[in-house]
Write a structure and sequence with these properties.
Elements: H1 16-33, E1 47-52, H2 58-69, E2 73-77, H3 90-98, E3 104-109, H4 114-119, E4 125-131, H5 137-151, E5 158-162, H6 169-180, E6 184-188, E7 204-206, H7 209-213, E8 218-221, H8 237-244, H9 248-251, E9 259-261, H10 274-278, H11 285-309
Parallel strand pairs: 1-2, 1-3, 3-4, 5-6, 5-8, 6-7, 8-9
Helix pairs in contact: 1-5, 1-11, 2-11, 5-6, 5-11
The structure holds N-carbamoyl-L-aspartate.
The site of N-carbamoyl-L-aspartate (NCD) has 11 residues, from helix 2 and helix 6.
């Protein structure tokens, strides 16, 4: 089998055949999810624990549903109310949970690198559901599946990733994935919201939407991540919307059949106009949510297969 990972910590370690393996299996789960009878047994008997140290609506719900549809026992740890608040370290929490013999740990954490660290301390498969500004691999995989289904391929496309790139783990994982699959990537946004040394990523950088969107097959909008900003990165939301908010006029510079994406949650009237977001002819934002469940089912299924094939090698 081409997917050989013990954990899913990021897109960085994945090979193109591994990415394709996840997407191919996810396609099958999309079909299952559209039936009335949505149960499959890939995770039957396994225990999945979701640990979200940061607020999440769709990602946590999506992982929960994915685990339940595959027959796992799914537990959500309320991390806000947990012992972390009483001073316990991340590692103490992890080793405590580890003693309960989970098979899959799904972790979101505000600090970059925290999920990798945790994976070294437990002997089950760990999935990164977003760590700081670092990676959000299942988001990039669900975006890739959405693009592949809408465009019929996942290579040689021009993808414009727009907005707050600097604070976005979604952008980082997407840049890695789309680059590995040989697409042309344009990052569009104000200089204050571009990461340092961005040219090292092998991408084009544009500071205005008109030139950034020209000929784009995919327009991916990002939320302004105010919770990660510690200063004035933009003059005002109004000014930002005027220059970088996606409306029908700016979208007219992209390819005529360009699709519009957003990982959610959206700030309508800040990075995207509500009418563009809701336009069924252009927006695939709801499809992204649908693909999210299928991709998470596929990722957990593949990790569980590797666990069964080599039960002793999962321990990092
Ligand atoms: C993203 C995240 O949490 O990184 N959202 C998500 O997973 N659906 C993007 C965001 O919060 O803007």
């Amino acid at each position: 089998m081409s997917f050989t990972q013990a954990h899913l910590l990021g897109i960085e370690p994945l090979s193109p055949p591994e990415i394709t393996a996840v997407l191919d299996l996810a396609d099958q789960y999309v079909d299952l999810n559209r039936r009335n009878q949505k149960h499959a047994g890939a995770l039957a008997g396994l225990t999945q624990i979701n640990m979200f140290f940061e607020n999440s609506t769709r990602t946590q719900a999506s992982f929960e549903l994915a685990g339940m549809r595959l027959g796992a026992d799914v537990m959500n740890m309320a991390m806000q109310a947990s012992s972390i608040r009483k001073g316990e370290t991340l590692i103490d929490t992890a080793t405590t949970l580890n003693a309960m013999h989970p098979d899959l740990l799904v972790v979101r954490h505000p600090q970059s690198g925290a999920v990798d660290l945790l994976a070294q301390k437990v002997n089950c498969a760990v999935i990164n559901a977003g760590d700081g500004r670092h990676e959000h691999p299942t988001q990039a995989l669900l975006d890739a599946l959405t693009i592949r289904r809408a465009k019929g391929r996942l290579h040689r496309l021009t993808v414009a990733i727009c907005g707050d790139i600097a604070h976005s783990r979604v952008a980082r994982s997407n840049i890695l994935l789309l680059g590995k699959m040989e697409n042309r990537i344009r990052l569009v946004g104000p200089p204050t919201l571009m990461p340092a040394r961005i040219a090292d990523f092998g991408v084009e950088v544009c500071h205005d939407m008109e030139s950034g969107l020209v000929g784009a097959d995919v327009v991916m909008m990002l939320r302004l991540q105010r919770e990660r900003m510690d200063g004035g990165f933009i003059p005002s939301e109004r000014e930002y919307y005027f220059r970088y908010g996606l409306d029908a006029d700016k979208l007219s510079h992209a390819a005529p059949d360009a699709i519009v994406m957003h990982p959610g949650p959206m700030n309508r009237g800040v990075e995207i106009d509500g009418e563009v977001a809701d336009d069924p002819a252009r927006s695939v934002i709801q499809e992204q949510v649908e693909m999210g469940v299928a991709v998470r089912m596929a990722a957990m299924d593949l990790l569980a297969r590797n666990m069964r094939a080599a039960p002793d090698t999962v321990m990092a």
